[in-house]
């Protein structure tokens, strides 16, 4: 829980004021640039030292066999692993005879800064070579949000104390050697030399490489061009080899003189188009970007982000670190989704190879809520990607002998890639999560075309899945047995409350949507009988309840299980999954991540306030948060129940997950779900926002330390702005139809020329502050408060 | 369900009257010879054609990595696989210019016969070569029950129609090429060239090879010697190579002349002794056997078997096929255990590589009951082997964060080799099964030394396991959550009735044994407090019961699950595990093998007769018998409930499992558990034998088709002989202390000079004949009866 020692708290950037080689991999994730199509980790320009080199293209993966000690029907035989594509970031620098390397010589100063409004990563360093030549190096790097195939670097060198021979080698490097992955199951699979040479070429200040992957048969083209400014006599030459493209710039600089290179890199890839087509596509993108020029790219980038922040920004007074974190989170969420267009948003975005680059339910449940209200087009793209995998999900359902569609637990292209079914395919809730995200998008945008086509298709196929997965028992109750809920320390249980509640809504919503869009539904083969069967299943859904304890068991029997021996579990034994067998975790009351508590967030209607308070207190005692998907959810429900300080602690944990590397694996990539969770903890937590078919409601209430919270939401073409202080909340919209919302349960009308200001009622928390397992309480954000 | 077309029904042998190349692998298993130390599959003498070549040494295995698509704490990282050791069976024959090969030329006659009393496999063939030379070949093969390192062959050739040049090559072949294994998870792992050459030598009619295994680092020595009888001028020469030892005998025979070779093969192996020591051990065994000579080996073999059959034989009048089968079963059970001495009895014995040569709970639950009463020394050896692995089981328990010992689900040497924990390590019942087998042995033999040492040690460590695996819930009831019972179509459930009942007895018995042997228990650290905690756990053990249905659910919630859609499951979809995912099987009411029904056999005291009848009828409707561990158990309970004809059907299924290849995988080795189950179905089924601490009881009752059943049991130094006819049963003992037993609930006293004859009461079956899932009813043994 130690914050990164050299990050400065600033409202609109993450600034690192000196270089710490031990946390290099973490900072490479934090400083990663992406537009959802290209991802460049924040590796140092000169390539070395590195924590983990990483350049990614969304959807570029290799297939690897999934081995099993014992075979089982339905186990996927191959998986998909994100690969490190050609590295276009490298700018090697020779200072007189010596390579610029921060490990040698003297690094007088080093600063990196990720600017959320400019959308660039800046770097300034002053270095003295072992032989005594001092240079200043500065670089600015971007992955363009406006030109999706383009990344660019402006690199400048300037000698400080003497005439210096300078060589800059701007490179494209394929098949970089990667560190050997560790044994943590949350890491990535090792793939050596995934790229097979197809072509290479160079000319003037340009060079390009084309490669193919072996099994997944994708073609990847990378080309670069340069604008070089240096003193007369500066020599520029390019060459190419199978795995190396290189433009070398050599010159001699006096102190005060400067060498400046603008490097523009264009990536293209395809699984269906020919090599010449992919090569030409990259060349064309490069030509366009060269025409735009560095200043033009910078201006476009800032303008794109200005538009984003205009609505999406969340302002918070009273905690500058959280203020920074929520913008950091929004920036990375935007980077992950902005230009994904037809591809997945992975759990780590394109910031690292963790989880093999797979997308999980995280996307729909933790990332899309944010994008839906802050960048609805990106949300629509992500949902369209899911929908594009529907044929594979239908095929998977058939393989599992189920109806409808079974979306994969983890995937890159759409095929199930989970090699451990109890925590993979059995987690069918992913299907309801997808349906829920599609409905959320329609609710927020009123996009009826989307609903009629994609939304209905997803709802119908997921409803069919649930109908065939569950059954009516002897008493007519609809049960869903033997599936895995969100909590990964339980598996294969009967009637997981989260799953059943989400499936219930999925079934009803499918019937409702089919009724609204009769013709489209008929085309999907839906008839009255099927709709009735969905409604009946929803109406008779089993929701277990432990009368004796007065709480909902996470699943049948859960509250009868032995409570984990927290007293004898040491700090070093967390995360538990690395130190205890699954069989032991599954059979005891210990919760990795919000499950029943998440159900209370997503199905607020299914619980009374008292049940919420009792359930929350019960599960707080069991939840160890060995997952980054938990703290934000706990923040939301803690806030709802009135434990505003506890909510603040969880908010901070979600907010600092990556900036402070709380789970010690930010090195492998950022935790997008947790980054999205910061926004959710503020908007749905302190803002109390809930958006159901029935109403858009807010129950804003701030803890004493926070004096102001303001956020904007895209709502069907307008922006709703919510301003919350300790005493009152103001709701305003910028244009369009008036809006009715609920403020602490009271209807409030807002129109473009009539904002509404409402008092915030004073409410005592329901019950005492809940306690957590020994050693697992969240860090107290404000120790001095009682 | 088609019987092998060319097996003749004979009381004391299995005779095959012609050769069917399509069922070669099955017959190689049926005709396998073993003494528990060496196993030779019934491959043809000349080596080819073969179904699956196989020569095994108990305990000789190779280590292989167990791969996982996703890592998990506690998953074993390496497994053990039985290897095909040096083949000493091969006798190649050259007839003039042509190799004797049944696939070419004309096979005029071919007969093989496994003789249960002689303990040999005989073969006679008459063959005409493509060029027209006719020869008669006969061989007799044995694996010695009296000299455990020895196997031997007597091989004779005789020309029929012309002067014939004959060459016999008697060989030792290492690293035979094996067929590629299929995808069936019940098969074996592929290991190519497991044997690494260490030494080879030849001299006169002798040759020998010494090899080592790579990872398991075992040394295996094989030597052979010959006695050759042929016409003058017969030439004998031997040679050796790294993977081949060969003695070549060449001669020319006139019709009426004969060449006769006696080949004696000695195997030695060790994981701790040096190469010279292992080589000398094999040479010494060979010298001894050569001194005994072929006739001497034959005589010893018959004498050993005479002693075995004197008590163990089961006589059955009215069904000659079952009569044959029960002796076939007893013969193979004896072969598997006779000389295992310090090694496991694997699920397939040493008859094939199925299940990687692993031992499971099958040994203790299905094989040892037979050996305990028919060959108690072999049972003691098997239990001593388990006990020798206790340190590994203690270590495994520690790894799983449990107390006591956790014996492996599958193993060769003692380490857990299960690579799929829900159907492996989670099946903790194996520990109670081992404890139960140890208690059964003590009960049958009164071997108090064994009880004080091995028995107590096993009981204490397994009781400690159960105490730490279960917990007292809020109501004080002792629950065992999240474990897997015998039925492999369910997994990781709470309070599996079989497991809980077996654990209950395990806990009580450990406390009782510790009380009987205070000093020994104290040495194991057992104190009053621990004993009390065991008794309390046993006393408050949760045994779920479904009041509404009036049956015991197999585990919590089982009877609420969806019933498998048997109506839409086709015959080709069995076994279900090859066509449906585990997740679907686990969550529905479908039973692979007796689970609750086995509980009723092993814990008869825990159920009322009415409960037994209702439970049996309920589970009959759900049990598909995709396992060979089921039919015999169903036979026992069907008989108890009075469904004598249904019991007969199940008895026949168990009896013909391998002779008729009912599961289509006898090719990989015999189903020892089912072979043992034949005896159990007769003795515990129609004989109604139950042996508890309280009493030895019988409830004999025969179906109309069977007119007489007689069997013997070793009981504490005497033999109890039970003779059952339709009307009465006679109990007699041959010597020693008088015996009190229960006959249909009535006490009966038997002494050496006072047999007891008792009438058999007429009892109606409890309820109508239970029904089975569509297409899964057992074959009706007697269709004509109503």
Which whole number gives the mean pLDDT of chain A? 96
Number of helices of chain A: 17
Multimerization status: homodimer
Based on CA inertia axes, which overall geometry of chain A fits?
globular
Taking the alpha carbons of the first and last residues of chain A, their distance comes to 22 Å
| Largest beta-sheet characterization of chain A | 10 strands, antiparallel
Q: Structural class of the helices, strands and pairings of chain A?
A: alpha+beta
Low-confidence stretches of chain A: none
Radius of gyration of chain A, CA atoms, in whole angstroms: 27 Å
- What level of helicity do the residues of chain A show? 25-40%
Number of strands of chain A: 33
Interface with most residues:
A-B, 52 and 52 residues
User: What percent of residues of chain A are in strands?
Assistant: 15-25%
Largest sheet of chain A, order of strands side by side?
A: 1-2-10-11-12-13-20-17-16-15
Q: Overview of this structure, please?
A:
The structure is a homodimer of 786-residue chains. By secondary structure, the first copy, chain A, is α+β, with helices and mostly antiparallel strands. In chain A, the strands form eight sheets. In chain A, strands 1-2-10-11-12-13-20-17-16-15 form a ten-stranded antiparallel sheet. A five-stranded antiparallel sheet of chain A has the order 9-8-14-19-18, with no helix packed on it. A five-stranded antiparallel sheet of chain A has the order 21-28-29-30-33. Chain A starts with 6 loop residues before the first strand and ends in a 27-residue tail after the last strand. The relative contact order of chain A is 0.09. The mean pLDDT of chain A is 96. At the A-B interface, helix 12 of A face helix 12 of B.
């Amino acid at each position: 829980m130690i914050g990164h020692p050299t990050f400065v708290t600033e409202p609109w950037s993450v600034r690192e004021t000196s270089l710490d080689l031990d946390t290099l991999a973490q900072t490479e994730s934090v400083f990663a640039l992406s537009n959802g199509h290209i991802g460049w980790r924040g590796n140092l320009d000169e390539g070395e030292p590195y924590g983990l080199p990483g350049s990614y293209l969304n959807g570029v993966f290799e297939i690897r066999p999934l081995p099993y000690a014992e075979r089982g029907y339905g186990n996927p035989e191959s998986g998909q692993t994100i690969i490190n594509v050609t590295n276009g970031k490298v700018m090697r620098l020779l200072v007189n005879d010596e390579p610029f390397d921060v490990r040698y010589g003297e690094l007088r100063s080093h600063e990196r800064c990720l600017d959320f409004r400019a959308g660039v990563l800046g770097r300034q360093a002053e270095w003295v070579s072992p032989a005594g030549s001092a240079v200043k190096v500065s670089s600015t790097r971007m992955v363009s949000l406006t030109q999706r195939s383009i990344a660019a670097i402006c690199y400048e060198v300037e000698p400080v104390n003497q005439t210096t021979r300078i060589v800059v080698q701007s490179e494209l490097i394929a098949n970089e050697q990667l560190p050997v992955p560790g044994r943590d199951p949350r890491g990535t699979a090792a793939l050596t030399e995934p790229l097979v040479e197809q072509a290479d070429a160079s000319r003037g200040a340009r060079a390009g490489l084309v490669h193919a992957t072996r099994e997944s048969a994708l073609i990847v083209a990378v080309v670069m061009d340069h604008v070089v400014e240096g003193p007369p006599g500066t020599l520029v030459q390019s060459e190419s080899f199978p795995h190396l493209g290189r433009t070398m710039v050599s010159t001699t600089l006096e102190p005060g003189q400067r060498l400046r290179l603008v490097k523009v890199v264009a990536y293209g890839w395809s699984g269906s188009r020919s090599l010449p087509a992919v090569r030409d596509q990259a060349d064309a993108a490069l030509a366009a970007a060269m025409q735009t020029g560095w200043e033009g790219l910078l201006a476009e980038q800032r303008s794109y982000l200005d538009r984003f922040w205009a609505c999406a920004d969340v302002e918070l007074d009273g905690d500058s670190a959280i203020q920074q974190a929520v913008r950091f989170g929004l920036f990375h969420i935007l980077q992950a989704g902005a230009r994904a267009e037809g591809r997945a948003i992975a759990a780590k975005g394109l910031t690292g190879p963790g989880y093999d680059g797979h997308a999980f339910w995280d996307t729909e449940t933790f990332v899309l809520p944010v994008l839906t209200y802050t960048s609805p087009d990106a949300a629509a793209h992500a949902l369209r990607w899911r929908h594009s995998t529907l044929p594979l999900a239908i095929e998977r359902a058939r393989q599992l002998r189920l109806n409808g569609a079974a979306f994969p637990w983890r995937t890159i292209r759409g095929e199930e890639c989970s090699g451990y079914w109890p925590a993979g395919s059995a987690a069918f809730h992913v299907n309801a999560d997808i349906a829920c995200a599609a409905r959320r998008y329609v609710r927020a945008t009123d996009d009826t075309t989307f609903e009629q086509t994609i939304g209905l298709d997803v709802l119908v196929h997921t409803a069919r899945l649930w109908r065939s997965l569950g059954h009516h028992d002897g008493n007519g109750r609809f049960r869903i047995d033997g599936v895995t809920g969100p909590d990964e320390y339980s598996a294969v249980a009967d009637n997981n409350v989260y799953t059943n509640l989400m499936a219930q809504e999925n079934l009803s919503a499918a019937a409702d949507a089919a009724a609204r869009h009769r013709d489209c539904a008929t085309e999907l083969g839906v008839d009255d009988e099927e709709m009735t069967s969905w409604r009946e299943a929803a109406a008779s859904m089993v929701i277990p309840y432990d009368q004796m304890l007065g709480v909902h068991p996470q699943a049948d029997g859960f509250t009868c299980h032995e409570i984990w021996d927290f007293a004898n579990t040491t700090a070093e034994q967390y995360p538990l999954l690395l130190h205890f067998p699954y069989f032991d975790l599954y059979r005891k009351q210990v919760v990795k991540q919000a499950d029943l508590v998440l159900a209370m967030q997503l199905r607020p209607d299914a619980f009374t306030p008292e049940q919420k308070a009792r359930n929350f207190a019960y599960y707080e005692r069991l939840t160890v948060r060995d997952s980054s998907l938990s703290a934000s959810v706990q923040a939301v429900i803690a806030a709802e129940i009135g434990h505003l300080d506890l909510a603040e602690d969880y908010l901070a944990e979600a907010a600092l997950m990556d900036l402070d590397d709380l789970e010690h694996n930010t090195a492998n990539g950022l935790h997008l779900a947790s980054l999205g969770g910061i926004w959710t903890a503020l908007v749905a937590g302190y803002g109390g926002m809930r958006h159901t078919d029935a109403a858009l409601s807010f129950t804003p209430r701030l803890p004493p330390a926070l004096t102001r919270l303001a956020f904007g939401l895209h709502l069907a073409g307008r922006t709703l702005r919510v301003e919350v202080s300790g005493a009152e909340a103001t709701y305003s919209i910028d244009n369009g139809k008036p809006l009715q919302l609920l403020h602490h349960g009271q209807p409030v009308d807002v129109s473009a020329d009539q904002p509404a200001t409402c008092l915030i009622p004073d409410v005592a928390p329901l019950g005492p502050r809940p306690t957590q397992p020994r050693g697992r309480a969240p860090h107290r954000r404000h120790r001095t408060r009682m």
